[in-house]
Write a structure and sequence with these properties.
The structure is a homodimer. The first copy, chain A, is globular. In chain A, the strands form four sheets. A seven-stranded antiparallel beta sheet of chain A has the order 15-12-14-13-17-18-16, with helices on both faces. In chain A, strands 5-6-10-8-9 form a five-stranded antiparallel beta sheet. By secondary structure, the first copy, chain A, is an alpha+beta fold. Chain A contains 17 helices and 18 strands. Chain A is 37% helix and 19% strand. At the A-B interface, strand 9, helix 8, strand 11, helix 9 and helix 11 of A face strand 9, helix 8, strand 11, helix 9 and helix 11 of B.
Chain lengths: 467, 467
């Protein structure tokens, strides 16, 4: 299948008409139907076509979310939850029209329980807003996808980022949540105990369900103490393979690395220019260690020795916050620096994840594929987990480049699945990867469909996504 | 509700008769109907009545599990998965009769991927058998419930143990699994990638579903490197409250403690005699640290300072394996030593879990409750997670003690739920805690029921459990 074979979702014109009228009446300025705002609330981040909703509503409470869902359920009109619109696989598109439910006004931090290392937030709180709020407590929330995404959206897409190798993903860090279901009822999936074996794990069922089973209205999240000390640095390697081998050795040695990021030579070229980094134009690992003063020094020394065993180095590391911040700013700006490699191009960032023993092989085959296509496509990866991204720079006006890219992504996904990995480590399925899920999990898709049909029999929650 | 109000499940005599005949024919000696073996395959570990199945089958492959399930599905006969029978809440009882599916012959370790820190096992492999098999690889599987349980059973009940504060529970450590569903079809919930955002998290839906949604036929588990160094020891405290405060401070400081176990003074008295430990008869914390040589020494020193701040100490710790082994053997034997406090008594081990800020209060109220009852009931806990157990020693022939105990457990569960905790941190709901689930998660129980009805419309998989 081609990525752009989006699933059709029939429109319900009559229902939409009624719902638009009621929402206008009820929400006033908090309901918008202008073309520009509607298009902003559909997919904008890649070449996947923009499929705008019929209107955008800005609820401010769980009760208002219930009201909107009940109204839409009554008239069989789709409801698409919207956080910051930074997803990459078409998650917020409205292929059958309907209402975009923008959670940005549900941005209260409801509680911080510092003693218990948890907090309760509304879904529209962004990860940066939460960490700014936490600053004085000595705590932080570690999950950091590239964008300053909303925590509701991050939970809905099972997001992760550079810290996942140490702190896990949204799967491990959402303790419980509340959600409005397709019939307008509300569930609370658990309480604040750090662990529980009380019944089915509905928290994890909702995390990663991409708004298709319910709309998250609050989240109980784990927090962590800001480490006493942090060390980090950059280490060049003669090849991607050697860098990957050093990663495997580091993980196997049990060194509790907090971040270990691969940047290939094309991406390093971009970062040297864009972020003014002074490193060789070769594959590099960006690493960071969290712990006690002596612990992080010890870990950095051990990593340096491992790197040298694989021909890497010199490993330049520091405990100085400003110097580390510059490195990680450059890493987080990888997307923007990559764009400078082909001015005017549109980027498609796609991700896969494989067992780390297959990582070097998977990246090497992918690199050969990129070279054969003649496209510019830097590679960056959260390699401690075997997860990597390819950022394809293409001319959005060129059908042949889009076709090339679609075929490339299909090969990449099937390559990862063939290596016992997944077609998406952290971006989700959305519309873009629907064609690959069944290859990955087979009959499980039927079970997913059955659960969807049970919890949302009329298919009003984010239709046309995942399967 | 009283714990002993078990849910009735109607018997299907005709179906059972047919199934018994077919299984005898098909499985020969691997199908047993003797009274003693049937009773061994029902609940035996607490005072909950033994409800025996009609027969016990010992399949040796996923295909044979499918065969049994299809046969039973065709005749609407219950199938109850059985690991080692060490669950504590009546999980393996057969209230409506049916077939116990004993997985003990599915005990092969199918693959160990040392480079990827994962392995694939059949459900009947026990945790000790896996660790014995792994010994030469330098890896281990950390989850350690009190019993030498089967890994399939541990996944099905979302088990954990003393290491959970550092390594997580079965929730975090099952990467993927295969399971036979109620219609005899097989699902594979994922591959070996460390993280994935591909569709609904069916792995986590099956983990903790207590055999009611499917029968696990293989598990892909995370493994960890055996730490380079381990330090550990015992620290007495003047009171439970002070011990809990030290735990909170330790967790908040971000000291990566691997185990932190509370043992109250009654339990210490038992352990001193049974396990010949030479410590004061006061509340104690058993702690352990995993890491590098200098790291574990540093962590032990830091913990000792925190303990002293809360009036605890002296903290006697060691890096010598034999000395540590004696301590942890004593901790793991807590159940047996507790039994010596009242010879001839039957024990009921019940567990709850609360946010750690409420732990001291919850344990203090529970201790006062025990004192008021006049029963002997030691308390031990995985307190880094806020999880603790009360081991009630009762006379099984005394209806008044059983009634007292049931009321006590009900108060304990409701106290934990009232403190934003759970009625079970690691034992599961089974039959024993069915009356409390709805108090804890409210409307979510309806969602669980709906999922159950979809995946097992005839209710043949472990009926009469959870809800």
């Amino acid at each position: 299948m081609a990525l752009s074979d989006l699933r059709q979702v029939p429109r319900n014109e009559e229902g939409v008409g009624i719902v638009l009228g009621v929402l206008k009446q009820r929400f006033g300025e908090r309901f918008q139907t202008g073309k520009s705002i509607r298009e902003q609330h559909a997919h904008t981040t890649t070449y996947i076509p923009n499929q705008a909703p019929d209107g955008v509503v800005f609820p401010e409470s769980s009760e208002e979310v219930q009201e909107v869902v009940k109204l839409c359920a009554g008239h069989r009109v789709p409801v698409i939850a919207y956080g910051t619109g930074t997803s990459l696989e078409g998650h917020v598109n409205a292929p059958g029209g309907g209402i975009s439910l923008d959670t940005s006004r549900m941005n209260r931090i409801l509680a911080v329980h510092a003693e218990d290392l948890d907090c309760i937030v509304e879904p529209g709180v962004t990860r940066e807003a939460l960490n700014a709020h936490l600053r004085d407590t000595g705590l932080f929330f570690p999950i950091d996808p590239g964008a300053n995404a909303s925590l509701g959206g991050m939970a809905a897409t099972r997001a992760s980022g550079t810290n996942a190798v140490r702190y896990g993903t949204m799967r491990e860090n959402v303790l419980a949540l509340t959600a409005v279901l397709a019939d307008g009822s509300v569930i609370s999936t658990g309480r604040r105990a750090k662990k529980s074996s009380a019944g089915y794990d509905l928290t994890r069922l909702m995390v990663g369900s991409e708004g298709t089973l319910g709309i998250i209205t609050s989240l109980t999240l784990k927090l962590f103490g800001i480490p006493q000390a942090i060390s980090g640095g950059v280490c060049p390697f003669p090849s991607i393979e050697k860098a990957c081998e050093a990663v495997i050795a580091t993980i196997q040695m049990g060194i509790p690395v907090a971040r270990i990021e691969l940047v290939n030579e094309v991406q390093m070229r971009a970062m040297k220019i864009y972020s003014k980094l002074d490193y060789p134009e070769s594959p590099c690992l960006f690493v960071e260690f969290h712990g006690s003063d002596s612990g992080v020094a010890e870990q950095a020394e051990m990593f340096g020795e491992i790197a040298a065993d694989y021909g890497g180095g010199p490993f330049q590391w520091t405990k100085v916050a400003e110097e580390r911040a510059k490195l990680w700013k450059a890493r987080h700006d990888a997307y923007w620096s990559a764009l400078t490699l082909r001015p005017g191009a549109k980027s498609l960032s796609t991700d896969t994840c494989v067992p780390i023993s297959r990582l070097a092989e998977c990246i090497a085959e992918t690199q050969a594929d990129i070279d054969a296509m003649g496209l510019i496509a830097p590679i960056v990866g959260h390699v401690g987990d075997g997860n990597f991204h390819v950022v394809l720079l293409i001319d959005p006006a060129s059908p042949s480049e889009i076709e090339q890219m679609e075929k490339f992504v299909a090969r990449l996904n099937m390559r990862a699945i063939g290596m016992d990995g997944t077609c998406t480590g952290e971006h989700g399925i959305g519309q873009g990867k629907m064609g690959f899920l069944e290859h990955e999990v087979g009959h499980s898709v039927e079970v997913m469909r059955a659960i969807k049909a049970t919890l949302d029999p009329n298919g009003i929650l984010n239709p046309g996504k995942i399967f």
